[in-house]
Design a protein that fits this description.
Helix content is 31%, strand content 26%. It is of the alpha+beta class. Belongs to the WD repeat PLAP family.
Amino acid sequence: MNDVEMKTAEEGNEFYLSRVIEAHKTDVKCLTSTSAGVIISGGRDEFVRFWSKRGGEFSETFSFAQPKGLIVNSIGYYESSDGWRVFAGRKDVCCLYVDEKNHILLSGSWDNNVIVWPIKEIGTPEYSALLLTGHTYSVWALAAIESSPGFYITGSADKSIKLWHNDIVVRTYTGHNDVVRAILVISADLFLSAGNDASIRLWHVQSDVCLATFSSLIETFIFSLAFVDSYVLSCSEGGHIEVWKQTGVEDTFSDGCIYVFTQKESHKASSSVRTAFENAIAAKVAKELERRKQKANETVRISVSLDDGVPNMELLYTKGTDPVLAAEKFVKDYNLPFSYVDEITEYIKGHIPEAAAAARRQHKVQPTERVTVDGEVYDYAFDVTVDDGRKLRLLYNLKDDPDIVAQRFVEKHNLPISFLAKTSLFVTNLFYEISSSSIFSGGCRYVPQQPSCTSSTFDIVDPFTGTARYVPSNSSKSASVDGSGDPYTISASPLSDKKRPRSELVPVPSYYRFGIEQLSSKALTKLVEMNAKQPALKLNTLQIDTIQRLMSGSEDLIDYDIVTSALDVGLQWTMNDLVPILDVFRVALLHEYLNTYFCDMKKRGESTHRRLLALLMSEPPDAISILVCRSLANAFAHPCGREMLCHDFQNLFAAVTNQLTSNKAALQLAATSTLANWSLLLLTRSETVSELGPREDAIRQIVKANC
């Protein structure tokens, strides 16, 4: 491996600031350059700009304005004897890569896929593009092994790297602890990768072995890698560049400027420009050092043991941050069941005042409604403090899908992919708090008993085995009318009348259902799009028009026979196209005629049951799992659906319960609603406590899923 050397640049090989280009109004998101030395930049201000050097200074020679709201995330430049092309990745396109030698453009997206485009054929009436499907989260990094046509390397938010030959996965490389954001091919045998874990890794292409790992001195996300002569450069969050052992280097910052560096003294910037730049860097470094010092002083260390022995685990909490983040990190670091998170969070809040205050701030809805931000009006604006101390504004309208809001928020602020689930859950909880309809929040939720220990000595108290741990009551007294006792002990659950209401939600008063939503119109648009792709199983115009009336909640008479014929066809579509037709199916089950048609066990019920179970058991995309669980919840709306859901109870219940381990809030809610409906059905069908069977199976499956 003597041909690869990764070390910091030697003293004397100094880089000087050469030019500062005031390029964009806000963040410069991406850069590339041409063989003629033209710099091409893309920014958050929705512009692609060309910069040419004339008389020693760079000036704008050309620009492309993008449609309103479309930020330029990535740029690809292709040059040939026939001319040049610039590709701009916007909206859901995370990254682009141009292989000029083989005339190929690669694009990676939030939809987890990569498309290989034949550049020379783009613009012709017909051309063939390859779809690379295999990653489970967004694709953030792309490269081609240009000396080996047809071989591509992709990096993803799922922490993996894949080698492809055309559209076939040849090899998967694992080792990064967070999102993979950059790939740099060194040769046909070697490549580098980098990402949010602040490490650069050297891989052997053919053996999938990580040959070496290099840690960034900056210890922040690494966004990109590049060759400059004999150097490898890495660009990190905060505007940092690290040179790993040029004549010119370009860099971008979040202030809208492009900074050009050089090793030639004759190309240095003027003394005044360099002094201003050095002062700004010194101030930035001082601020970062002060932040790290404060962070070190604000870290509370709690020694923890899960048994009666000496504490052998350390729980770290940084004052002022969300205690949930500390609890989740602790559970992840020590490979503990996720069910511990709530208990650890409550313990931290109960013993560290700053944690309780931070939790209140995190979940506080700003009193101002109809907030105007950047000329746009929003229903709510939340102040969110993330791990690195930044306070960001999360904007939300009541009609918005929390998952879309989370995606927009994470993309805008370049947050780790793990923030998707956290942000979606945060918005969902707040939304249901506002509407007072959450089964997880409000006065009727289950709240663990508060710790009785008031000690402020954080390094010896154990939240699992110490005096502050949660201990269920063993009292045999009657339960209070408000149902506030422990639901798993005798004192809170008198056996004489198990159907007596103990609170607004215990037992469940009626079956939960998922009705017509604002997103249903989007599903219809997607349905038309997916239908057009079908080679044989295609819906006709009458069927689509009837479905549109069904999904709009129209009071007009609907021909249910047309709906059933449409669903019979659509439910045969492939997994990739199934989402919009499943959305129609779950709404259809709310209508008694359609519910009977699909769920009657004397007719099609067994086939419907088998199809839904197979979908859940096949580890489908989250969107499929969500809609299957919503369909099951809606099936409870009518007698035939309830009868179907008692069939093969154990397998179907286990499949739904397994969805509780997902980090996606919408899937948790759909699965929990289905389980709540089952609880009501089992309650109404069980007349004596001595009965053993489905209820006990249900409890066992829930316990198993959370352990």
